[in-house]
Amino acid sequence: MYSLEKIKIEIAGEINRMIGKDLVQASDLVYPPDAGMGDLSLPCFNPARELKKSPVETAKKLGSEFPKIDSVATVSVAGPYLNFKLDKIYFSKIIVTEINKLKDKYGNNDTGKGRRVMIEYSNANTHKEYHIGHLRNLCFGDAVQRILAANGYKSLPVSYINDFGIHAAKTIWWTFHPDNKYAKAVLADLEPEKRGAFLGEMYAASCQREKEDKLAKQMIELVMKKIESRQGEEYELWKKTREWTIEQFDRIYKELGIKFVHIFYESEYIDQGRAEVNAMIKSGLLSVSQGAVIADLEKYKLGVLMFLRSDGTALYPVADLALARTKVNNYDLDRSVYVTDTRQSLHFKQLFKVLELSGLKAEMINLGYEFVKLPGGMMSSRSGNVITYEDLRGELMKKAIRETGQRHDDWSAVKIETVAAAITMGALKFEMIKVGADQVITYDIDKALKFEGFTAAYLQYAYARIRSIIRKANDDSAEPSVNTGNDKADTENDKEHELIMTLSKYTEAVKMAGEEYDPSEIAKYLFGLAQIFNDYYHAVPVLKTDKATRKARLKLCEAVSSVIKNGLGLLGIGVVEEM
């Protein structure tokens, strides 16, 4: 249990002792809108009912009788609210000591009590390019699983790749199409870095041709059957181009530092899924309608979910059935979480209902997120109007190298590139998770790299600046370093207390982010912390003061840098010592 929570429990305990009943919880203590009113505040409406007094009278009575305790400096009343100002020196010492002792463990808790939660994300399609819409899924899912792990869950990140759907048949069909001479000319010896773009072109061209050619749909369905039969040249090309995509995915995961405990593929679960579909037809859970196999969920107000087309080819729910059962049974899950585009929300409501009706007992959650668009409008793989991952990363890296080089003309090319890579990875990820999942993202490359404003670069720069302050102190032999001197602290400054109070709230931000599956809570917290630190640094001397105060303030700087690093780590973003 962290110090801020202990203080809340202590205050609540004193209130309950005065009332004579366990009525007030630590969670009832809130933060006043104006810091001048106090650090913590208790609305006295519930205690008033117990004491049979008005909330204002209750606040006055409790305020006048509240005992002296080490953590609280003053108690005041504002209408029905009982406000507490914490003892600045006491609070500073316990919070800064706590953070600097726990370091990278600060913020972690045991809320999850080791419960096993599988997070499925990066469920992209093969045979297309990897674009920035996919990147939101990847970054959001990775941040959620990191945050759940910090909250004491056994987090199991997995990926599910759709490698066997009609999208693959469309790409293969157009690649083989007699009108497509370009594909035949380049397919044999295409360079690895160009393969994703090539498949994207084939898919977009196929979608366009399908609109113009009345026979295209039938021909694509025929290719799908050939692939499902696992025989013939279409199947062989499917295997070859599938490997291209998987190699591309692996490269992207490695660059972004994302690891999975397992990667599932749709093609591995089609046969098992078909067997389940047949069993469900026999049990009456699924039915045949006009040659197609469906789940009629109208009575649950969920419409109809199709499993097999009238030609017998499988749709996504077939493999989804088998995979869901495999995950729950083989991994002994307490909860199974799916991260998907909000446009798939109905599909997962339908799938979860079918699984529930089939007897699968597990908590299943779909985390939906809104789409990503460009400043010029929406993206579409079908039309070819996308920004690929490689294009975005390349553009960001080019700009980051240029700006870093301009700031540090004395740095080596290797050092510039190393720092620029960290800035690039931060910009790639942070823009995808700094807002709630229910908000549409318009990705602006120029804004993403700015060193001011709500960006990863701003947070990384705040960290680098603090580390520079600490290095300067340690390099100055005439002054004590962070690890020498006495522990006397001068924390009477309001800016300092605001900073320490903010540091203490990090543990609550981590907990809330886990409860809400919301990485943006961490992003917003870090931005606020960095702003408060910058205000503090400009208003309060850290190095040019007496030795004891200098010592205490350097410890505070150390604590701030630890929290920024920890928070960025939960978002999957690295820090750099210099920028």
Give short descriptive properties of this protein.
11% strand; 579 residues; 3 domains; Isoleucyl-tRNA Synthetase, Domain 1; Gyrase A, domain 2; five-stranded parallel sheet; Rossmann fold
CATH topology of the largest domain: Rossmann fold
Shape: flat
CATH architecture of the largest domain: 3-Layer(aba) Sandwich
Number of domains: 3
Report what the structure shows.
This protein has 579 residues and is an alpha/beta fold. It has three domains: 3-86, Arginyl tRNA synthetase N-terminal domain (Gyrase A, domain 2); 122-373, HUPs (Rossmann fold, 3-Layer(aba) Sandwich), CATH 3.40.50; 442-570, Orthogonal Bundle (Isoleucyl-tRNA Synthetase, Domain 1). The protein is 55% helix and 11% strand. It has helices at residues 3-19, 45-51, 55-65, 88-102, 132-150, 166-176, 181-186, 192-212, 216-229, 232-256, 270-283, 316-331, 345-357, 389-407, 413-433, 445-448, 456-475, 494-504, 506-516, 520-539, 547-570; strands at residues 40-43, 72-78, 81-86, 116-121, 154-161, 262-265, 287-289, 292-296, 304-308, 335-341, 363-369, 372-373, 441-442. The strands form four sheets. The protein has a five-stranded parallel β-sheet, with helices on both faces. It has a three-stranded antiparallel β-sheet with strand order 1-3-2. A hairpin with a 2-residue loop joins strand 2 and strand 3 (81-86). Helix 2 crosses helix 3, helix 9 (216-229) crosses helix 10 (232-256) and helix 20 runs antiparallel to helix 21. It is flat and about 85 Å long. Residues 480-491 have low confidence and may be disordered.
